[in-house]
């Protein structure tokens, strides 16, 4: 059992799936959301929570003012738990989350975006190649100023952000858990000014 930390649904109790997921610890969530609020990254955001588990990350953003949240979880039992938790948070006054029982890749291939804030908290046993493929598939769905938060084991290989056109802006470890913050790499400056001067 865990709880929503702050916002409209503060204190709402969330159920955690019995097996097959790895909930983000309260300590990590408190630190993460404190930093996200300081960066003004939550209010009004369109949020995507991949490998949602209990849905705690995406639901926390709705409680704190996010506009919408898509929660993606493949496991049948876990997806059922996410739906229950989403109903609990909506009952407390937060916006309703959209829950998708799907693999991450399948969802990303049919999603439209754009997303402002994305959480990717894959199972520790997800291999590096699959992790990179997910990020590459995610990239076209990101808003230009989006934030992507990736959670993995501290001992894991760092995500290949460059392959997805992302750049690292922050990295922080909490015991065995590591968080990587990334954002889309700025587009290369176009030659528009030069073209305009030639047309005069």
Question: What this model shows, in words?
Answer:
By secondary structure, this protein is an alpha/beta fold. It has helices spanning about 25-40, 55-65, 75-90, 105-110, 130-140, 190-200, and strands at about 1-5, 15, 45-50, 70-75, 100, 115-120, 140-155, 165-175, 175-185. It has a single domain (about 1-185), classed as Vaccinia Virus protein VP39 (Rossmann fold, 3-Layer(aba) Sandwich). It has 6 helices and 9 strands, in the order E-E-H-E-H-E-H-E-H-E-H-E-E-E-H. The strands form 2 sheets. It has a 7-stranded mixed sheet with strand order 5-4-3-6-7-9-8, with helices on one face. It has a two-stranded antiparallel sheet with strand order 1-2. Helix 2 (about 55-65) links the parallel strand 3 (about 45-50) and strand 4 (about 70-75). Residues about 190-200 have low confidence and may be disordered.
List the helices and strands and how they pair.
Blueprint: E1 2-3, E2 13-14, H1 26-38, E3 46-50, H2 56-63, E4 68-73, H3 76-91, E5 98-101, H4 104-110, E6 115-120, H5 128-138, E7 142-153, E8 166-174, E9 177-184, H6 192-199
Parallel strand pairs: 3-4, 3-6, 4-5, 6-7
Antiparallel strand pairs: 1-2, 7-9, 8-9
Helix pairs in contact: 2-3, 4-5
C-alpha Rg, in Å?
18 Å
Query: How are strands sequenced across the largest beta sheet?
Result: 5-4-3-6-7-9-8
CATH class: Alpha Beta
- Shape verdict: globular
N-to-C SSE series? EEHEHEHEHEHEEEH
Per CATH, which architecture?
3-Layer(aba) Sandwich
Beta-strand percent range = 25-35%
Extract low-pLDDT stretches. Answer: 188-200
Give the domain tally: 1
Terminal CA distance: 67 Å
- pLDDT average, as an integer? 90
Largest pleated sheet: 7 strands, mixed
How many helices does DSSP assign? 6
CATH topology: Rossmann fold
